[in-house]
Design goal:
EC 6.1.1.2; three-stranded parallel sheet; ATP-binding; about 140 residues; globular; Rossmann fold; mainly alpha
Length: about 140
């Protein structure tokens, strides 16, 4: 079975990241075709410091390896380094009804509580998620 999952590099990883996601990834890489990603394009949908983001990306990659993700058993990469994520998101965006995106619960909640950083990236976040999943013809998406 092919799986895909990722973590946003928005800050330091913590025990919740390990227990909620990475720990299960270690098991999944043993018996599946596993694709794990540092989803940095997802991270830029909310305010960020470019220097901190670059540091966080490197820190997450190091943490993946330190936790036991094995590049011989799984694929892991930085989302922005694979241009097809953006290309497929663009194509999907051309057929995604705006009304469907505006009804997304997370978008509505953030639009109410953080009006200062509502942007098209946040609105189309689910389209980018769909491209992440479809690009690898994923059968399962473990979330933590």
């Amino acid at each position: 079975m092919r799986i895909f999952s990722g973590i946003r590099p928005t800050g330091e990883l913590h025990i919740g990241n390990y227990l909620g996601a990475i720990k299960q990834w270690l098991e999944l890489q043993e018996k599946n075709e596993a694709v794990f990603c540092i989803v940095d394009w997802h991270a830029i949908t909310t305010p960020f410091d470019p220097k901190k983001l670059q540091k966080n990306i490197l820190d997450v990659a190091i943490a993946y390896l330190a936790a036991g993700l094995d590049p011989e058993k799984c694929i892991f990469f930085i989302q922005s380094q694979v241009k097809e994520h953006a290309e497929l998101a663009w194509l999907l965006g051309t057929i995604t009804p705006l009304g469907e995106l505006e009804r997304m619960t997370q978008f509505k909640e953030k639009a109410k509580s953080h009006k200062e950083y509502i942007n098209a990236g946040l609105l189309t976040y689910p389209v980018l998620m769909a491209s992440d999943i479809l690009l690898y013809q994923t059968e399962a998406v473990p979330v933590g």
